[in-house]
């Protein structure tokens, strides 16, 4: 039985001060959640938010990281730094990183391995662009991203991580994939994982859907057999809405 996991990706929103206040408000609104809850603020907010949620079940995640331990990589942050800041999770290969910062499957793979080596659970993002979906290439693209991102990992490692299916055309557009379409791709991702490392891991790995998840579509999405959670952008920036998403039916 896979425990659902709902994560909020705050992207480049909220200062550290605003993030801390928001996190405290969130703690008051999310009590006794039956699911894993993760919030991913910007780097400068990790420490204060980590302190704000310390005695609560809410976990801390980062939005990106470098794969190296340390070194001359101006502007980057290492897995050890994230761990030291209180992170348990890190988002890897978000489509905005792939699109605007030229992140490749090879880089994603290095980041996934580095995260696991530092006891950080990677949330590995995959998803096709609109033109690719319309050209009937969804499975080709998503399959290659899954195989590339998870290359060389043991069955046990794959079982421990989280995969987020985020169709690029559904991110921030208000255009959610239908629950049936999302289920179909999440099922395909699970089958791809099974072919890669075996059915046992495929049965354990948690797969989130992301892309315009809102309070009014979460229930239908979570009712799908292969959707184990959500990676929420815009709707995670409102306390009441995010609390409602976490408390899906
Ligand atoms: O990119 C996303 C989460 O990582 C989804 O963003 P929205 O929920 O704003 O569409």
Automatic annotation (TrEMBL):
Signal peptide: none annotated. Substrate binds at residues 9-11, 172, 212, 233-234. InterPro entries: Aldolase_TIM, TIM_sf, TrioseP_Isoase_bac/euk, Triosephosphate_isomerase, Triosephosphate_isomerase_AS. It is found in: Cytoplasm. GO terms for cellular component: cytosol. Its EC number is 5.3.1.1. The keyword Secreted does not apply. Involved in the gluconeogenesis. Catalyzes stereospecifically the conversion of dihydroxyacetone phosphate (DHAP) to D-glyceraldehyde-3-phosphate (G3P). PANTHER family: TRIOSEPHOSPHATE ISOMERASE. Belongs to the triosephosphate isomerase family. This is Triosephosphate isomerase. It comes from Anaerosporomusa subterranea. The lineage of its organism: Bacteria, Bacillati, Bacillota, Negativicutes, Acetonemataceae.
């Amino acid at each position: 039985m896979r425990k659902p996991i709902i994560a909020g990706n705050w992207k480049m929103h909220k200062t550290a001060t605003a993030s801390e206040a928001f996190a405290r408000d969130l703690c008051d609104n999310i009590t006794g959640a039956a699911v894993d809850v993760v919030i991913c603020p910007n780097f400068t907010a990790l420490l204060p938010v980590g302190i704000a949620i310390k005695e609560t079940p809410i976990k801390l995640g980062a939005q990106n990281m470098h794969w190296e331990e340390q070194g001359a990589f101006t502007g980057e942050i290492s897995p050890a730094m994230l761990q030291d800041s209180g992170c348990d999770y890190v988002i890897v290969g978000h489509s905005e990183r792939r699109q605007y910062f030229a992140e490749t499957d090879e880089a994603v793979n290095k980041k996934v391995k580095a995260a696991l080596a530092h006891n950080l659970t990677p949330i590995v993002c995959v998803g096709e662009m609109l033109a690719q979906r319309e050209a009937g290439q969804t499975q080709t693209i998503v399959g290659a991203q899954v195989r590339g991102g998870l290359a060389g990992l043991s069955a046990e490692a794959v079982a421990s991580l989280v995969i987020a299916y985020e169709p690029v055309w559904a991110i921030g557009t208000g255009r959610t994939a239908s629950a049936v379409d999302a289920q179909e791709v999440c099922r395909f991702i699970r089958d791809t994982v099974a072919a890669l490392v075996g059915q046992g891991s495929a049965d354990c790995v948690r797969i989130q859907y992301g892309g315009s998840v809102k309070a009014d579509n979460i229930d239908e999405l979570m009712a799908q057999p292969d959707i184990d959670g959500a990676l929420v952008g815009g709707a995670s920036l409102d306390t009441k809405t995010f609390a409602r998403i976490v408390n899906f039916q």
